[in-house]
Structures are given as C-alpha cells and as structure tokens.
Write a structure and sequence with these properties.
single chain; 370 residues; alpha/beta; eight-stranded parallel sheet; two-stranded parallel ribbon; 16% strand; disordered N terminus
Length: 370
C-alpha cells in the first residue's frame, strides 16, 4: 500500500484536515436546580425586612454618635441643685451615726441638695406600713445636723398592675386615695417631700395625672416638695406606642405626656439609664438627646434632673462599659448647652448610693463640679 492511499483511506488524516469540527452541545446542568419563584420572593422579603430594621438602627446610632460630638458650653456645671437616690438601709435600722458622717463627707463638696431615701414600697392598695421605716426620724435629724440645707424626701414606689398580674391599680380611686394618705403619713414623720416612682407607667395615663394633682394639693398645704421619677422620652416619634404593643414595660413616654407630668410636680428626675446602648459615645449622645427633649417641655418653674448610673451591670438593657457616669454627665451638659444653658432649676441625680464605686464619684465630681 502506497503512502497516498494510506493517508486518504486507511487513516483519513489529511482528508479531514480542512473540515471545522461541530461545536459541542453544553452538558445539561443536572446538579443545579432553578430556584422556585416563592423562594425568591421570600428572600426578597427577608432582605427588605432586614433593611427596614437595620438601616433605621444604624441611622439612630450614627445620629447619637454625632450628638455626642462638640464641647459643652461654659458654665454648664452644677447649679447646686442636684439630688441622689438612697437605699432603704438608711431608715430600717442598718445605718448608724458613723454612716451619716461618712455620707456627709462624701456629699459635702457636691451640689446634692435633695436626698430621695427609699421608704416604701407601698402596698398594692396604696397603704404604707410604718414598720418599714422605724429610723426615718433619726435619719432626717442626722442629715439636718451633718448637712444643713439638704432636704430629705420619702422615696415611695410600687409595681403597677399593668405590668403583670399583681400591683397597684391606678384606676382604683380608693387606692389613689390611700397613696395620698401615705404621703401625708411620711410628711408627718418629718420628711420634706414625697418622691414617687411607679412602674411600669404607660404614657398618657390619666389616672396618674389625677394622682399627681391630689398629691400636689397635699404637698402645697404642707409646704413640701413633690417629685417623681420619670420614664425616658420617645427618641423616635411614637416609639412608646410601638413598644407598648410588644412589651408590658414600655420604657418611653411621649414628650407631650412628659410635659404634662412636669407641670404637676416640683421636681422631675429622668431615669436616663438602662438604655441598651452598646457604646459610650452613643449612650452619651442618647443622654444629650433626652436632656434636650426634657428641657423643651419642662417649665422653668419645675426642677429637672437627669439620672446617672451609679452602678455597674452587664445585660441586654444595660452595658456597663457603655453607660458610664462620665458619658452621662457630658451628655447632659451637651443637651443643656444646646437647649437652655441658663436654666437654673437643673441638676443631675446619681442612682444609687449603695452600688456606687469610687470611679462613679470621681467622674461625677470631675465632670459636673465647678
């Protein structure tokens, strides 16, 4: 067999050289399934929900961080109108003269002029057993001796029935009347004011406003102070309404309701802690915002106080590394600077004496003292 025959017939190599091979068909993707339409819809809905929740949260956190920037105005320091919450040990017999002397030494160079000493709790019917505060008269006299000019107010509180199956029912006129009677009872003991803390108190509670009206009549007749611990103000419009749908203990009041309360009392102290803020800067920005919101609706004749966290906890509602006294003081000064720097009836209120650390005291004195 010659070579030409071999190339053209036997092997066919040269005979097919100029023929373009066909493009192969792609193999079917048997291992890859197409998404069903409902899966894609669910994915898109999840993305939208994530954006609806995350984007506003990031916007709020950014706003609070910006709110913490800048310098407080000159003169935004203590007006010598600060207050402090004290524990029950001062009136039940656990504290002695030496303890009062130590307290006086601690408070001497601060602007604290009101002490809210825990004297309750009230019973759910509004009554107050006198057995709860057997040493109240001793403490009041000791404070007047060691700290002339400092007032002692009875800190009365209770859980409200709207926060669970049991508690004080504000819609019960008889219970409200007993609260007023209990207030008169502590004033008879020698207290110079009544400090009320009822929680969880829903925004817009008309029964609470009626109670305050009745208490104000009593305290004015007795030349005594009426003060209250107040919830925080909506950082976003209507947030208290949204929170009320998912929680029995909404943290916020509307700004309008805050103003209604503030106009009925001599002193209103914002519980500006337990904010769930994760960073010191955003917590400080939050306090600055709360200070401004409160100042806008608190009449100049009412004494406004911003609470300070004199304790350390770590939980989803309060991160100790973020909620520092230094951040709260600076935030309050920034809010005061931007809204009403000349407000005289303004102060800070540490909560609470028995949990306070040396760092808490130092940050309070360094940041707020003259």
């Amino acid at each position: 067999m010659d070579h030409a025959e071999s190339r053209d017939g036997a092997t066919g190599t040269d005979a097919h050289t100029d023929v373009t091979p066909a493009t192969p068909e792609p193999a079917p993707e048997s291992g890859k399934k197409r998404r069903r339409p409902w899966v894609r819809r669910v994915g898109r809905i999840a993305l939208v929900l994530a954006l609806v929740l995350i984007v506003p949260l990031l916007a709020v956190e950014t706003t609070l961080r910006v709110n913490y920037m800048g310098d407080p105005a000159d003169g935004t320091h203590t007006r010598d109108r600060d207050a402090m919450w004290l524990g029950h040990a001062w009136v039940d017999g656990r504290k002695k003269d030496a303890d009062v002397t130590a307290l006086a030494r601690r408070l001497k160079d601060t602007g604290v002029r009101d002490l809210y000493v825990h004297t309750g709790p009230l019973e759910h019917d509004g009554t107050l057993p006198e057995s709860l505060y057997p040493r109240a008269r001793w403490f009041i006299d000791a404070v007047h001796r060691e700290l002339p000019g400092v007032r002692v107010q009875a800190f009365l509180g209770d859980v409200l029935a709207n926060g669970g199956p049991e508690g004080l029912e504000l819609s019960d006129a008889a219970a409200r009347a007993e609260v007023v009677r209990s207030a008169g009872q502590v004033l008879d003991t020698g207290y110079e004011g009544v400090h009320l803390d009822l929680e969880p108190l829903h925004s817009g509670d008309e029964n609470y406003l009626d109670l305050l009206d009745d208490l104000r009549k009593l305290t004015r007749e007795r030349d005594a102070q009426l003060s209250v611990a107040a919830h925080q103000i909506d950082p976003l419009p209507h947030l208290h309404s949204v929170a009320g749908l998912v929680a029995d203990h909404p943290k916020w009041w509307s700004q309008k309701f805050f103003g209604q309360v503030a106009r009925r009392v001599d002193q209103i102290a914002v519980m500006s802690y337990d904010t769930a803020r994760l960073f010191e800067s955003t917590y400080g920005g939050y306090v600055a915002q709360q200070t401004s919101l409160a100042l806008e609706v608190t009449p100049p004749t009412t004494h406004l106080l911003m609470g300070l966290p004199f304790y350390y906890e770590n939980n989803p509602g309060h991160w100790g590394h973020a909620e520092t006294v230094a951040a709260a003081v600076r935030g309050a000064r920034l809010g005061l600077s931007r809204t009403d720097p000349d407000r005289e009836l303004f102060g800070l209120a540490p909560y609470i004496d028995f949990a306070a650390s040396e760092t808490n005291w130092k940050e309070f004195e360094d940041g707020w003292g003259r």
